[in-house]
Design a protein that fits this description.
105 residues, mainly alpha, 78% helix
């Protein structure tokens, strides 16, 4: 399957799930998936295949749920543009030394 065909079919499945479950259910499911991911955000420096696999599963769940919320709220383009703008700002701050001496970016 080509990358474009995969992207289209994945998007179609996201749309179908979003439509099937609706906004209220998907908002709740997103919260649940984010909570499950939050539990796995511990020390990643310890190599553990099972933990890595669990994190990948939860990241994928959250990724799909956030995509569905964007579809349901009809804000996909705005979110993508805002995310890009925020990353541009982060890169500018890194280049300027803004984060030097700060614990987190």
């Amino acid at each position: 399957m080509s990358q474009e065909a995969y992207q289209n079919s994945h998007y179609d499945r996201l749309c179908a799930a979003a439509k099937h479950f609706g906004l209220d259910a998907q908002k709740q499911k997103t919260k649940e998936e984010m909570d499950e991911l939050a539990e796995l955000l511990g020390d990643y420096s310890v190599p553990d295949r099972a933990l890595r696999a669990a994190r990948i599963e939860e990241l994928a769940d959250v990724y799909n749920m956030l995509d569905q919320l964007c579809i349901l709220w009809d804000c996909e383009d705005e979110v993508r543009d805002t995310a890009e703008r925020k990353m541009e700002r982060t890169m500018e701050r890194i280049a300027s030394g803004y984060y030097e001496g700060k614990a987190n970016g």
